[in-house]
Amino acid sequence: MENLIAKLSEQKGITLRQNAPMREYTTFQIGGPARLLIEPESVDALVSCYRILTENAVVPLVIGAGSNLLVSDKGIPGVVIRLAKSMSRIEIDGEYITAEAGVSLARLATEALSAGLSGLEFAGGIPGSLGGAVFMNAGAYGGEMKDVIVETTYLSKDGTVATVSGEEHAFGYRHSFFSEKGGIVLSARMKLTPKNPEEIRATMKELSTRRRDKQPLNFPSAGSFFKRPEGHFAGKLIEDAGLKGTTFGGAQISEKHAGFVINTGGATAKDVCLLMDFVTEKVQTLYGVTLEPEVRMLGDFSDILQ
Ligand SMILES: Cc1cc2nc3c(=O)[nH]c(=O)nc-3n(C[C@H](O)[C@H](O)[C@H](O)COP(=O)(O)OP(=O)(O)OC[C@H]3O[C@@H](n4cnc5c(N)ncnc54)[C@H](O)[C@@H]3O)c2cc1C
What we know:
alpha+beta; Uridine Diphospho-n-acetylenolpyruvylglucosamine Reductase, domain 2; Uridine Diphospho-n-acetylenolpyruvylglucosamine Reductase, domain 3; Uridine Diphospho-n-acetylenolpyruvylglucosamine Reductase, domain 1; 3 domains; five-stranded antiparallel β-sheet; four-stranded mixed β-sheet; 19 strands; binds flavin-adenine dinucleotide
């Protein structure tokens, strides 16, 4: 690792941080240190840095804004590439917006509003990056990335820059080409629809109010913890099972929205896993429904999860 760090230090356009506490890079505010965290400023810098990693047989983990992650207390022994804030150029061309992976969905929705383009209203309150949203096919209030994305440029595992378009994205519920096959999303092109900005603004305001009324936004979390089981809502099952407020250490089933696990202060990944196991087992016993985490778990959980 020391040799690799020395080589990367000579590389322009990237920021390196050793032993980076992942709780600082996740909205859950949980997670041990990543041995090395790299933040590239541009696509070119990312491609060059990826080449160095490959030459050293290092496979990095890629994260965006860290809003859908549970990172192990042991951290991540290898390299994490973070694409949020940096790599955040946006170009608007008629009904099309092309944006780099690090652009936040909030900014994307605001830029679309300013350009009088409709289609991203649903995304304004999702605290992720464009790259993470494409990977997850993020969605809310009847909209999803699938509806707007026309083409995505990505860095494939072999280090070449490639594109997928239309159906090739294989978008499904919290699923995409990238969650299936890997690759680092570099940028995406979206097709929107012209609309009166006042109408767009009103919709965004209404969705933001609904979010604030329903979700525990005053606590760190990773959003809805479980996927929606077919024919059910995870939050409703958990609430019906009487599990609101159930607490393990600093992790709690939100009193406000039972689909959210919140960090009430100092929660560890272990607390969250114990809570997740407890809730999953109760719901399985009571309703015969298997809950699965929507949150992506990074790092080693082998000593906690059987
Ligand atoms: C309060 C709150 C509310 C939320 N509401 C919603 C909601 O309404 N709808 C919804 O769908 N989600 C919601 N989420 C979850 C989360 O915001 C989304 O899943 C979001 O799309 C994740 O983006 P991110 O940049 O934070 O990705 P991260 O959490 O950093 O990563 C998520 C996954 O994407 C991968 N990834 C990230 N960037 C890239 C990239 N450039 N290339 C390849 N892979 C990448 C990571 O490896 C990881 O597997 C919410 C979260 C919170 C905290």
